[in-house]
Amino acid sequence: METKELFVPISLESIEPVIFPDVALYIKTGGNYVLYKSNGRDFSSHDHERLTKNGIEFIFVSKNDMDVITGHMEANAERLLKTDVLSSKAKGKMIFQTSINFVDDIFNNPDKSADLGRTRRLIENLMMYLSDNTDAVQSLELVMAHNYHTFVHSLQVASLTLLIHSEEYSLSHSEMLDVGTGAILHDFGKIFVPQEILNKPGRLNEYEVRVLKRHPEEGYEFLRKKNVLSPVSLAIIRLHHERCNGTGYPLGLENLDIPRSAQVTGVADVYCALTTDKNGNKTTPSHIAVQLMREEMKGCFAPHLLNTLEKLVCKEDVQQIIL
User: Fold this and answer.
1) What is the mean pLDDT of residues 63-70?
2) Nearest-CA neighbor of 9 among 60, 67, 83?
3) pLDDT digits (tens, 9 = 90+) for 250-290
């Protein structure tokens, strides 16, 4: 959907040496991609240590190799999350990388959205990480390049949506999976928005705004026809831009007419958009973002949800934060 790059960044901390798939690996130097390891040689522990010591955070792989890499990382994610060998930070980067690969794949290959089992396994792993890490909001880090903004944003919103639900409501495990599924796919409809609109610098004109505002309905209709997502997941995808004061879209619903999980995802979506730019940089301190949502967007969000958001993201207002 979003990237035209021939190479994809992979966080070094998310790679398990020796068993990582045998693909060519590259290092980015001065804007150029330089071959580090060709096919036919394992990526060893020595490689991992040497690159780490040299301050290398990412290696790069060809987009043509992403299917095998994504399959490998998804197959091993649960095992790695349960191990004591990896630090919490490394686990965060691993689940982040795996999730970004997944969203990239789904958005670029829409028909793969019918694999509900795969989606739910991803959310299971994300929930496992969030539940085991008491400072999940502060410890997860942005690890992808700017051309992955939509995919990074999807994971940010899903993480914060799950955390708010966990704090605010007592949902069953199955309900939480439905919430996480809807949240990570909330922007799925953007695959139907022309690239020139999605990537346009500056303000959109009235026509472009109308086209962009169709994405919740179009994503909902596409996924509804797949007949695999729950009503909760579909409601999030369709209604996360509704606002309590009726100023949202596509239906202009108000207050309790907006499903609870769609309201929560809407809060997470706006917060993440306010605090992170397309380069993955934090643009607005957490407490300022919450203040803007309370005052400049007064009436748009349920006050109790803003209170929960503030409790989660404003502990110390740290500088590096995913959400």
Assistant:
1) 90
2) 60
3) 999 999 999 999 999 999 999 999 988 765 667 789 999 99
Instruction: Name the packing angle between helices 173-184 and 149-168 (round to 10°).
Output: 150
- Domain limits of the chain? 68-313
For residues 169, 294, 190, 33, the Cα torsion angle rounded to the nearest 10 degrees is -100
What amino acid is encoded at 137 in this protein?
A: V
Q: Which residues pair with 8 in a beta bridge?
A: 61
Q: Could you tell me the two tokens for 251?
A: 């239906």
Measured in degrees and rounded to the nearest 5, phi and psi for residue 60 equal -125, 145
Residue 88 CB contacts under 8 Å (≥ 6 apart), including other chains: 132, 133, 139
pLDDT at residue 87 is higher than 70: yes
Joined tokens for residue 117: 């089992």
Cα angle: 18, vertex 19, 25; to 5 degrees: 70
Of 121, 127, 128, 90, nearest to 106 by C-alpha is 121
Within 10 A of 41 (CB to CB), how many other CB atoms are there? 11
Say if residue 175's pLDDT is above 50. yes
CA dihedral 158, 236, 293, 256 (to 10 degrees): -140
Coil/strand/helix, residue 53: helix
Distance separating alpha carbons of residues 244 and 260, to the nearest angstrom: 11
Q: What is the pLDDT of residues 215-229, one digit of tens each?
A: 999 999 999 999 999
Residue 283 DSSP label: -
CA distance 90 to 144: 15
Q: CA nearest 66: which of 114, 21, 131? A: 21
Query: pLDDT per residue over 111-157, tens digit each?
Result: 999 999 999 999 999 998 888 765 555 544 433 333 456 778 898 89
User: Any idea which residue has 């990526």 for tokens?
Assistant: 43
Q: If one looks up domain 68-313 in CATH, what number appears?
A: 1.10.3210.10
- Which among 188, 186, 183, 181 is positioned nearest to 121, based on CA atoms? 181
Average pLDDT, integer, range 288-298: 96
Is-cis flag, bond preceding 250, omega within 30?
yes
